[in-house]
UniProtKB/TrEMBL annotation:
Assigned GO CC terms: endomembrane system; plasma membrane
UniProt xrefs under InterPro entries: BIM1-like, BIM1-like_dom
Transmembrane residue ranges: 174-196
Gene source species: Dissophora globulifera
Localization of this protein: Cell membrane; Endomembrane system
Full protein name: Copper acquisition factor BIM1-like domain-containing protein
Entry keywords, A to Z: Cell membrane, Glycoprotein, Lipoprotein, Membrane, Signal, Transmembrane, Transmembrane helix
Primary site of residence: membrane
Copper acquisition factor BIM1-like domain sequence ranges: 17-157
Record flagged with keyword Ribosomal protein: no
Topology with respect to the bilayer: Lipid-anchor
N-terminal signal peptide: 1-18
Length: 199
């Protein structure tokens, strides 16, 4: 697991690599290299809307950094402009600090938001910061009290100690960290040797 995390961090430094994806509700669109483009990762038009429950909703993301800070903003209306996202960001709907890579289910309960009522269109913006630069994804939704079209089964968490995944003990995770460091030094040593041999 530690080795995998280190590998993803290294790969993520390439701009073409997906740093995170918004998997549910459906993102407006995803192009890895365009994720740093505010407000919606390079996608300016609404294409389709997902029903989103007024209470007890969630967003499902896949995070490719070991840790990340996320802000969720919501803009009400049919076709929000860039300025509307800037305004919404002054009062975020939610802020979350993620401590693990992989699938994460982020709760989003809109029932206390005064503009959130039955049949209102809105756009949910996820701002993700995994340490490189802020990244943006949006989902266009219609808020409904009885969201029969909202798929509750999409809420999945890859917790380090979660069910279905091996539970790391203190010693095995320490060993994992050592082996990751060892692998990296081996690679560095190999590159050094190769450089030496060309002279
Ligand atoms: Cu990244």
């Amino acid at each position: 697991m530690k080795v995998f995390s280190l590998a993803t961090i290294l790969l993520c430094s390439s701009t073409a690599m997906a740093h995170f994806s918004l998997d549910y509700p459906s993102s407006r669109g995803f192009i890895g290299a365009n994720e740093p483009l505010a407000p919606c990762g390079g996608f300016i038009a609404v294409t389709n809307r997902t029903q989103f429950p007024l209470s007890k909703g969630f967003l499902e993301i896949n995070s490719h950094h070991a840790a990340a800070d996320l802000t969720i903003n919501i803009v009400f209306g049919n076709d929000p402009a860039a300025m509307d996202f800037t305004t919404a960001a002054t009062t975020p709907a939610s802020s979350i600090s993620l401590k693990h890579p992989g699938n994460a289910c982020l709760p989003l309960d809109l029932s206390t938001f005064k503009n959130a009522t039955n049949n209102v269109n809105a756009t949910i913006q996820v701002v993700y910061n995994g340490g490189d630069s802020p990244l943006y994804q949006c989902a266009d939704v219609v808020i409904v009290s009885n969201a029969t079209g909202f798929d509750q089964s999409k809420c999945i968490n890859d917790l380090p100690t979660g069910t279905g995944a091996p539970t790391p003990t203190k010693s095995s995770s320490a060993a994992g960290a050592l082996s990751a460091t060892g692998t990296l030094s081996t690679v560095v040593a190999a590159i050094f040797m190769a450089a030496v041999m060309t002279f």
